[in-house]
Amino acid sequence: MRRRTAGALAVLALPLLPVACSTHVTTDANSGATAAVGSGSIKADAALTGRTLTVSSKDFTESIVLGQITKLALQAAGAKVKDKTNIKGSANTRAALTSKEVDLYWDYTGTGWIIYLKHTDPVKGAAAQFKAVADEDRAKNGVRWLTPAPADNTFALAVLSAKARQWKLTSLSDFAAFARSRPADATVCLESEFSTRNDGWPGLIRAYGIDIPKSNIKLVDTGVVYTETAKGTTCNFGEVFATDGRITNLKLTTLEDDRQFFPVYNPALTLRTETADSYPSIGQIMAPIAARLDNATLRGLNAQVAVDGLPPDRVAEGWLKKNGFIG
What is the pLDDT of residue 292? Predict the structure, then answer.
């Protein structure tokens, strides 16, 4: 099961911010979180007004932020939203959806394909991967995948940006050549799960012909990979998630997967088919939001929570306002 590093985050209630007259403040009964929603590009929708929907997420930073964005967008459209974000693990969150405990949450195409649909090999290309997972999940499980975001929270190999420039490294093919020419500097920090899975280190070194001594590989906790890679003492390279906010904060550079080895992990809102059919405007509301969520955007949003310590609902509210979705 794919793991994330930021861990569970409590959604904190803070003193209310000043709001314009066109907005109102909502307080979630479960988390106590408060946020202002109001007039922006998202207008009241007749089909959603007064309807109650339960929004969920997994228990890592990015998923919780995406859940809060969805909650505020649906509230702006007039829906009543129950907040059941921060469910532990992919399996539990998915089960909450299919058992009708929750109505919608963001998942990842790679997770759907490999974990839920139990395929071993990913489909090459984001569009092809999305179509494959969306078609099969709808047919087999009655789960609908809405328009995916361009962001790709896949695995990546990172190096301190200054070293990437010094060593002229931009891609994983560059890293493979670097490992041959300077094996002593090709030290890599990995988490234990990545070190053994087919779409992790064993597959990566086969795909790129990477050959480095086993002593160059250091197994560390997931979160430690980022800090150790930035320090450059235990390892010069580290396995990271491509949209993690610490990449920018720690001045790391991710190497391009120029042979498209890693699965594509585009985030997309998932919901049961009956919910999608009952409220087709959800897709219309969320599509332009998804279109704005690229890697740089998610890294920035994640960093505001994981690095700056802001509550996810405030980060979501600020981004929706900045982009004109809510007033």
Answer: 97
